[in-house]
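testing teh design pipeline on a random one, pls ignore if ur not involved
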């Protein structure tokens, strides 16, 4: 009974978020999102920062949020350019909150939509070595742990994770929890990087870069050991 109620609540939240996005698309008009996507495709932090500043405070916040959502949906656009740009414009903690919320929301939307279409329907599109490796590990080990770890492993585009994971037995709540628990680390470091870069605080900027390098090396070296422990 509790499980059914939980699933209904998750479904209701998903529908409300989807309706909210449709309203915002209508409210801000198609031109707004076309320009937003064009700016994102440049992968240029300066152009993104300039575009967001032009929007004003609230529209700028919404732009960064939507850029973070679109980054996930688009699969291969790197999130670092958005997060560094946000750090340039806002205080690092505001930038982090906006980018983090957008990234988690984007993953939730893609995963939820893929699940609604049917198990693995969208995951089939990504039948390459990385996607197959990820699916194999999700099915062999603890799905939530693998999804969380995948967000930290270099070489796996974060955008493919919700598509591939939709073909596994992981639940909507479990997937969102795994993304939320792991994705914040790199997002906050990227926001630190932009924040300190624009303010000329290069020592802290170097620390943010060094922390990312250490994190990437540790995860890369130990990924197989960690996955074996969860088998």
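output:
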């Amino acid at each position: 009974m509790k499980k059914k109620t939980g699933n209904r609540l998750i479904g209701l939240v998903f529908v409300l978020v989807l309706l909210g996005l449709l309203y915002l698309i209508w409210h801000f008009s198609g031109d707004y999102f076309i320009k937003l996507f064009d700016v994102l495709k440049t992968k240029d932090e300066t152009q993104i920062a300039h575009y967001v500043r032009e929007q004003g405070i609230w529209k700028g916040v919404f732009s960064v949020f939507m850029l973070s959502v679109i980054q996930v949906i688009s699969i291969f656009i790197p999130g670092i350019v958005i997060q560094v740009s946000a750090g340039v414009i806002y205080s690092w903690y505001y930038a982090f909150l906006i980018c983090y919320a957008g990234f988690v929301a984007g993953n939730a939307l893609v995963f939820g939509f893929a699940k609604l279409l049917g198990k693995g329907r969208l995951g089939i599109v990504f039948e390459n070595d990385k996607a197959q490796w990820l699916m194999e590990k999700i099915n062999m080990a603890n799905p939530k742990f693998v999804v969380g770890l995948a967000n930290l492993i270099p070489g796996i585009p974060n955008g493919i994770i919700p598509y591939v994971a939709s073909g596994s037995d992981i639940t909507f709540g479990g997937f969102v929890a795994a993304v939320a628990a792991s994705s914040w680390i790199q997002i906050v470091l990227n926001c630190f990087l932009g924040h300190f870069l624009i303010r000329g605080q290069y020592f802290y900027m170097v620390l943010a870069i060094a922390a990312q390098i250490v994190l990437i090396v540790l995860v890369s070296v130990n990924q197989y050991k960690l996955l074996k422990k969860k088998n």
